[in-house]
Amino acid sequence: QVQVAESGGGLVQPGTSLRLSCVVSGVQFENYSIVWYRQAADKERERIARLSRRGTTTFMASSVTGRFTLSRDNARNTAYLQMTGLKPEDTAIYYCYADGSSVGQMSSWGQGTQVTVSS
Length: 119
Fold this sequence. Notes:
Layout: E1 3-7, E2 10-12, E3 18-25, E4 33-39, E5 46-51, E6 57-60, E7 68-73, E8 78-83, E9 92-99, E10 108-109, E11 113-117
Parallel strand pairs: 2-11
Antiparallel strand pairs: 1-3, 3-8, 4-5, 4-9, 5-6, 7-8, 9-10, 9-11
């Protein structure tokens, strides 16, 4: 059973950086693409970035392009979302989605981690 857990959120000031982690367990991590979403208060969940099984960024929302980067460490079963130049509009709950569909495996969501950007 695939389990997903995000961490690394917090309260930060505008212009600073934060790195979120997404640990995927119970499955072979190398088989999973990782998709990051976020949901701000009173808004729909928004897909912001996708990292392929090979570690290639295959999607990045225009709202975060140039500020956010993706990476993965297969030895640690962990994917990362590095966020720089944070803005108040980046405030949201950030979710990690482990997508195993390309290899016929189950996919799963994490519980989310809150990021608040405020002075």
